[in-house]
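User: I'm writing a short report section on ligand binding and want a predicted complex to refer to. Could you take this sequence and D-xylulose and write out the structure as tokens? A short remark afterwards would be nice.
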Amino acid sequence: MPLYLGLDCSTQSLTAIVIDGDPARPDAWQRVFESSLNFDEALPAFGTRHGVLPHADPRVAQAPPAMWRAALDAMMARIAASGLDLSQLDAIAGAAQQHGSVYLTAGGDFARAVAPIWMDASTAAECAEIESAVGGAARLAQHTGSRAFERFTAAQIRKFWKDDPAGYEATDRIHLVSSYMASLLIGANAPLDPGDASGMNLMDLRTSQWWTPAVEACAPDLARRLPAIVPPSTVIGTLAPHWQMRHGLPPARVLVWTGDNPSSLIGAGLIDEGQIGISLGTSDTIFGPMREPRVSTSGDGHVFASPTGAFMALTCFANGSLARENVRDMFGLDWAGFSDLLRSTPPGNNGRMLLPWFEPEITPHIATPRIVRHQLDAHDAAGHVRAVIEAQMLALALHSRWMGVTPRAIRATGGASVNDEVLQVMADVFGAPVTRAPEANTAALGAAIRAMRGRVQEEAAAVFAPAAAGHAVYLDMLPRYAALERANR
Ligand code: XUL
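Assistant: Sure. The structure tokens for the complex follow:
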């Protein structure tokens, strides 16, 4: 049977999943290969920490695009050596961390050695300039789906143009990570899909084309430097001769790539409004399908085009896995010990709370990293473990209210979704049943499924039912958490 490859170039790793299936039976496929390559470990020469280059300014977050290129080569070598019958490789699709941008010259060299990535929070001035040039934050949000966000590509491009006009001048094409990786596969400049292009503050959601006022507000002569935007299932080329010669791979069809969150929508099998996905990865995100683009008036969230055709709502938190790891490491725990302590403490944590802003936070907007303890002793390990998880779940609930949907069912995905205790807190906070997605890496799975144009197989997954007593505690706690957050913004 034909094989379909899905790739996900995320913050910390590149993951590949191959499924074997028959497009005529879109939900009857099997996973036959899965591999993850951690950037820090596999490619130490690039000097990243958690996939990000160290920088003196905590607001700056950049990664070397040459590292992603090297990772793709290493992953293709792994796939070539997998023993799979790769003559059957029919199509490839991919997903990548959103918002990050790669600057290429006309000759295909890097016009900028680093790519600003989604964790960057250094463009407040450029956000204000763009919003004011287009007639305000609300108008920008009405058209592009989001007010100006520091990590979004428009503000990043503007900052590059201001800081390094010669580098900007030498730039012929500005890719997102998704279209950059797709370009490497097809050996030519690849287009963008509307899902990932909506993370730039430059695309008009209703037309899925560039919105000229934002493009003109961003940087001079930008339009010719932007990729085309094509529908989400477009075949953009075939695997370039380079890959065929280097790794003996066939000229498989390559589909346009998308962002990791839009891809996760497919990988988690979210179809109807009211179905909600929560991804606990490097970033924590809450997202779900949206029939009509109802933008966030609170300024908390985003509306993106969805790879399934309509729209999706999303709110993103920067302090996801790195905050959980910080608390784990503060007390010298492993994950089993972390879970034990979480189990040993009651919902509500006897009033102890933590604002876990170890990195600059996106939601709510916190420019200078800090943590805030409320009735929490600095040496209280169990208190910190529950407090970080409760803070994350309460923040997810609080800052997704703008979506206007009452979650009927939640699909949890991402690395931390393997933890039962975390999912129980999630169910209790939201008062909705939580199931684990069939795969922690829904972005890579979503890409493989997209390559096949298939669907998620519905497996009987464990359900974490909300406990009435726990939910009551969190209903009561939410306003107190919101007040603590407000007081410390
Ligand atoms: C979404 C966002 C993050 C990245 C992480 O808006 O910034 O979820 O996509 O890879």
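A remark for your report: The two ends are 55 Å apart (CA to CA). The chain has a mean pLDDT of 96.
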